[in-house]
Amino acid sequence: MNITPEHEARMAKMTFSSVYPHYLKKVESKGRTKEELHQVIAWLTGFDDKKIQELIEGKVTFETFFQMATVNPNAHLIRGTICGYRIEDIEHPLTRHVRYLDKLVDELAKGKKMEKILRQA
Known about the structure:
Layout: H1 5-13, H2 16-29, H3 34-45, H4 49-57, H5 62-68, E1 81-82, E2 85-86, H6 93-109, H7 114-117
Helix pairs in contact: 2-6, 3-6
């Protein structure tokens, strides 16, 4: 996967709070809930509802967001394509983590069962 340094820098500087409303709108428009979205975020990052809200209000960048996160050890089981990129081929850790989150939100919005989204080894 050939992602440019400019793309990586743009990803790092993007704030979680700028993307979160899009995630929420996407899942709610497909009949899923904010609680389910938070469950998916918590699975990937270890953040509870209170921490998610703090990160939104603090307008943290994705770089800070994932530095603070404890990424789920099963996150490597997230595979497939998102935004034209094959997740398992993304070499830059931050970009891969952001795409993991994007993929989980997509799966939630598409109606995938939670036990399938929250991968187990």
